[in-house]
Amino acid sequence: PTLGVYLVGLTLAWIEEQGGLAAMEKVDEAKAKGLYDAIDGSNGFYRGSVTNPAHRSRMNVTFLLPNEELEKKFLKQADAEKLIGLKGHRSVGGLRASIYNAMPQAGVEKLVDLMERFRKAS
């Protein structure tokens, strides 16, 4: 298991460089809050798949658009802007933004910006 131990060591060192677990938790909360605020503040254009805030994930934010046609159009525009992997699970549909620790705040801000522009244009 040498490789696994080595990779865990690199990951732990990276976490320390970020300010430790407490600092990473604050960043994760801010990323999720920004994305959920965009969904909740869209006047129903975007709808969160999980409506109870206590049950929402900080790592995988799932949401729906008013119809599948708009979802396909959104995904195409997202791909053009290098925001990839947003298509939801094949059995559930919708969209899913995975914002794990390696996703920087700037990536979430770019997605939120696209969501706002797309909503206004639709």
List the helices and strands and how they pair.
Layout: H1 2-17, H2 20-40, E1 47-48, E2 60-64, H3 68-80, E3 95-98, H4 105-121
Antiparallel strand pairs: 1-2, 2-3
The average pLDDT value, as a whole number, equals 95
**What would you call the shape?**
elongated
What is the strand tally? 3
- Quaternary state reads single chain
Q: Name the helix and strand elements from N-terminus to C-terminus, one letter apiece.
A: HHEEHEH
User: What is the strand content?
Assistant: 5-15%
Computed CA radius of gyration, to the nearest angstrom: 16 Å
Largest sheet: 3 strands, antiparallel
Question: What's the N-to-C terminus distance?
Answer: 52 Å
Describe the structure.
- The chain is elongated, with a radius of gyration of 16 Å.
- The chain is mainly alpha-helical and 122 residues long.
- α2 runs parallel beside α4 (105-121).
- It has helices at 2-17, 20-40, 68-80, 105-121, and strands at residues 47-48, 60-64, 95-98.
- The chain is built from 4 helices and 3 strands; from the N terminus they run ααββαβα.
